[in-house]
Amino acid sequence: MSDTRDLLIELGTEELPPTSLAKLSAAFAEHFSAQLIQAGLEFAQIKPYASPRRLALVVESLQVSQADRQIERRGPAVTAAFDEEGNPTKALVGFAGSCGVSVDDLETTETDKGAWLVFRQLQAGEATANLLPGMIEQALHLLPIAKRMRWGALPGEFVRPVHWLVVLFGEEVVPCQLLGVTSGRDTLGHRFHHPDKICIATPATYAPQLQTEGHVMVDMTARREAIRGQVMELARQLGGEAVINPDLLDEVTGLVEWPCALSGSFDPKFLALPAEALISSMEGHQKYFAVRAADGQLLPNFITVSNIESRDPAQVVAGNERVILPRLSDAAFFWDTDRKSPLAARAEQLKTIVFQHQLGSLYDKSQRVAKLAEQLAKWLGADAALAGRAAELAKCDLVTEMVGEFPELQGIMGRYYAQLDGENPELAEAIDEQYLPRFAGDKLPETRTGQILAIAEKLDTLVGLFGIGQPPSGVKDPFALRRAALGMLRIIIERELDIDLLKMLQYAETNLQKVLTESNSSQAVMHYCYERLRAYVTEQGFRPDEYEAVLAVQPVRPLDFMQRLRAVADFRGLPEAEALAAANKRIGNILRKNNDHSDDIAVDVTLLQDEAEKALAAKLTDVTEALTPLMVNADYAASLSLLATLRTTIDSFFDEVMVMADDPAIRRNRLALLNRLRALFLGVADISSLQA
Prior knowledge:
Elements: E1 4-13, H1 21-38, E2 45-51, E3 54-63, E4 69-77, H2 78-81, H3 90-99, E5 107-111, E6 114-123, H4 128-141, E7 162-169, E8 172-173, E9 177-178, E10 181-184, E11 186-188, E12 197-199, H5 206-212, H6 220-237, E13 241-243, H7 246-253, E14 260-265, H8 275-286, E15 289-292, E16 298-306, H9 313-338, E17 354-356, E18 360-361, H10 362-380, H11 384-393, H12 401-405, H13 412-420, H14 425-433, H15 448-467, H16 481-494, H17 501-511, H18 521-539, H19 544-551, H20 558-572, H21 577-593, H22 611-632, H23 636-643, H24 647-656, H25 664-682
Parallel strand pairs: 7-10
Antiparallel strand pairs: 1-3, 1-7, 2-3, 4-6, 5-6, 7-8, 9-10, 11-12, 13-15, 14-16, 15-16, 17-18
């Protein structure tokens, strides 16, 4: 690598959105890195930094200039470059002029298509400092900012007002004007602890100077871990363990530059409220961390992270304790108010909430899901009445005061209120479990009623949205159909529910028949779900061709699909697998080219002539008899192992028998034999899809 220097870029702003800070920082590094690579500039690594008032990058060992490069432009062919008298044509003169040279400066190159005139020139690399302003501007322009704003008379638009800019290449400032500010080497420290300017000596000293002089922990990862450590230590001192929500931890990290954790307390009487309601009050409104005792019960304490190192921390704690009191009082009021009416009495209110204008209200959806849940319960041998009742009550907590204030408690509060109403304990759990899994890798419903309700709710949403022509498109998925499809599949597979997915979808489609505008939406959803299954099994370690082998036989039961998939993956490890996959591919090609309905024709043993085909027919009879109980029990692994014993017989058949015999009857009989053989394999999967 040529001469290199470190580069520092820092954009100083008003406080950035805390929940977006990590994403903005990562995107800034990603887009600036792409700009450097596109320009052909080599570097060692990029280290992103971010705090509430700044986005920064340190690029280590960045080339000071681009490498020189040979440029070549091809002009007209020699045959078209000169006229009959040898004078340059207008095309040649024009080409030379566009290159800024005379015709005599052009060279000739020979190719397999003839001779051409070319212009060659060694182009000196551009100095990196000259390229940086445009690169920085482009990287900032590409940041994922939902709404850019203009501030007063300042030029440019950004998410927050910009106050300073540092662009330091080695020890030198790179002149640059962006978003109304001019670059320099001065940054600002903590808004209160060190509001004065700090002169950055070199990019390498940037983070250490801010921390030691400016009271700013600019490394976001280090700041997050410092907060986590302080919070955990305070919780330990309180005799408990901190409830650390990763999203809250990220948000707090985006709110402070110099974290100082402090603990406070509240009236123990509030512990009579559901723990989730208390935690939501503390996290959502105040950005506090709750504390649990060893037995899992909440302690009457909280931990807040201040952005200052106060000389009188007791005053800070007292202020936070005063602020949390009305929040907890509100939660207590909502709890008392909601308990005055049973969940069932709230069902009518669901008629006022639109789920989707074509699919009706939440009440309409609840009624559809209830019918679907009852039917699904019957198929699974579960309590249909309990499943239907759970579906009717499932959305009633959405109209409670508590969920109105804390939407993230939907389902959770329904569980509490159902328990207080004396509903079946499994029904109460199901109301909470209907939303599972909430995200990738989340837990699944434990109760059978919860599993049924979660599947039914997702089925109705999927078939409904597809049925009115609103499937996900690109990145747009407002009803989270991708998550619904994958969540439903996970419940069916991981909870081992032997359910016919197509049958379920068709029942859901019948439920929605009066409002659907698209035909055969159940098939469309089936295809969509199996595309989601493709991603799921890939994450499980299965190979794409194994998935395709099973998909080819169109299993309608996801659990059965997975059983076949595991069998195919095991089969692949057998020594006979590769030869049998090739043989099946050959058989498939022969049958496709001779589509004479040989599958409708039984093998006539009197037409078997060669010993190899007689041996294959006899072997098929024996294998078919042994295979029947294995297939009845869905023992696909044993089935494929049994079919693997056919390899030698199949090889002999293809070595010794001419399938396309001249005699039409013999030819058709041999095709029927091959069709019978292929059908045995297709009973499990199309192993011809397997790649070597």
